[in-house]
Amino acid sequence: MLLSTICTLSLLAPLISAQPTTLRKTLTGHIDPSQVFTFVYAPFEVPPSTTSITVLQTYSHKNNGNALDLGLFDQRGLSLSASRGWSGGFRNNFTITPSWATPGYNPGAIEPGTWNVVLGPYTSVPEGIDWQLEIEMGFDPVHEYFALDPASVNLDPLCNGLCTEDEQRQGSWLRGDFHIHTIYSDGRYTPQEQIDIAVRQGLDFIFFSDHNTDSSNNVMGTFQALAPDLLIGRGIEVTTRAGHWQALGLDPDQLVEWRYKDTENYTAAAKDVHRRGGLVSINHPFAACSACNWVFDDWTANDAIEVWNAEWDSTDAAAVGKWQDLLVDGKYTTAIGGSDSHSPPALNGIPTTVVRSRGRSQAAVVEGVKAGGAYIVRGPGMEIEFRVRLPSLLGLRTVEIGDKVKASPVGAVAVVRAKGFEGRTKICFVTERGYVYNSTLRNDGDGNGEVKRFVPVSSRFLRVEVRNATGDGDEVLGLTNPVWFL
Ligand SMILES: *[C@@H]1O[C@H](CO)[C@@H](O)[C@H](O)[C@H]1NC(C)=O
Ligand SMILES: *[C@@H]1O[C@H](CO)[C@@H](O)[C@H](O)[C@H]1NC(C)=O
Ligand SMILES: *[C@@H]1O[C@H](CO)[C@@H](O)[C@H](O)[C@H]1NC(C)=O
Ligand SMILES: *[C@@H]1O[C@H](CO)[C@@H](O)[C@H](O)[C@H]1NC(C)=O
């Protein structure tokens, strides 16, 4: 009885409804190896009343010499604002509907017109890439619509993002991570897992930065209740074909152009981020994977450089070397760190960047980094206080990391207090002439200690590194931005 009822209903359904229940299309094509690092668009028509789009991508020599990225542009065309999502090489299929979408893609209205799947050839075998897209459109009625739900980026509502000293309660030196991924791009961590780890790592702020998509930034409001004291900043890792960069301090729904390998296009996109109040940082400039290292011929459109990506290694040492060259050239580029954590066992907060901020807001953290008020440590529990005392007209003056002061003709005294660095460590003082002093940190057994040194007269800047001095270990455990002497 029950069975026959179901049969009748399903037989009747096509007669009752004027629309087919699904519409399927298959697109195919060939990409030549010469097209690697370009973008190929596969247009398709979306009829009125469509309420879901599913795309399934297959291609030749997958995981065997060919790699083809995947994304979607809607009926508005191929401009940045028409981007509906990006999953790079991480997914072979996605669905979008007005209320819900596969992470990495933005749900919302599905308007009729010409849409485009974007294919990004990343590597190719000599025969090229033969690709196929199976597109399925559905017409089920919808009753729910997606609404942007970004996290608040100001946890001190009493002041307007940038607190005065009186208003500032928990501001000052905030611990955070500028580079975090989730399932909204190529990570396996959910936002909730990343937030739980950040709390355990003692962080005050994190910036989610999924690759070429704002879709994670647009839904973080839901997760904020999990950790009301954690500032959840908005970022995108702009993953181009000539290097990766962080666009940090973004608005909800703000995208950043990534489809280029020319310096002018990067500079234009960076300017756009600045125009809206954001921060630009070059990521892992010497990373070893293809198109991950910095190829753009521009080291000045950025405010910061990620000199320390995940656990310290030789690519970080190379980044510090490049940063030192920029400092010697008189460029105020801020060194920051990022865990680049995607999946277990990587942890956010390794390394941790500590920023002098006027309050717990995205705007204050961005301002602090732009001002150079930042240092990096390997992880939880480690702190560096680096102060310079010098005579001034009003008596002895104390300045901190990021400050720019008039050089004193009689010199100055640098005081470094380090906390939480266990084992044998050394404090290295670095000026434009390189390493000027190395001092063993005499620590009290808990990893706390203090070093005082005279600042060489006529130094243009002074910065500090904390290094492992056990055996042949020389890795960096902490690193400050400079104090500048003008
Ligand atoms: C679609 O993607 C999901 C998640 O990545 C995957 O588990 C599933 O196997 C994919 N479907 C097909 C048909 O490949
Ligand atoms: C890249 O720059 C070229 C020349 O300046 C311009 O025509 C093009 O629109 C830019 N492309 C993107 C994706 O911004
Ligand atoms: C000080 O330490 C740095 C970093 O380990 C090293 O490169 C340099 O040679 C050291 N300088 C002296 C004088 O030991
Ligand atoms: C310093 O290096 C030694 C030898 O490689 C290692 O055992 C130790 O854990 C390191 N210390 C820290 C604080 O990382």
TrEMBL record:
Instruction: Give the UniProt keywords, A-Z.
Output: Signal
Organism domain of life = Eukaryota
| Residue ranges of domain Polymerase/histidinol phosphatase N-terminal in the record | 176-242
Matching InterPro entries: PHP_domain, Pol/His_phosphatase_N, Pol/histidinol_Pase-like
Signal in keyword set: yes
Residues spanning the signal sequence: 1-18
Enumerate the PANTHER family for this protein. EXONUCLEASE (PTHR42924), POLYMERASE_HISTIDINOL PHOSPHATASE N-TERMINAL DOMAIN-CONTAINING PROTEIN (PTHR42924:SF3)
Name assigned to this protein: Polymerase/histidinol phosphatase-like protein
Source organism per entry reads: Aspergillus keveii
Q: What is the lineage of its organism?
A: Eukaryota, Fungi, Dikarya, Ascomycota, Pezizomycotina
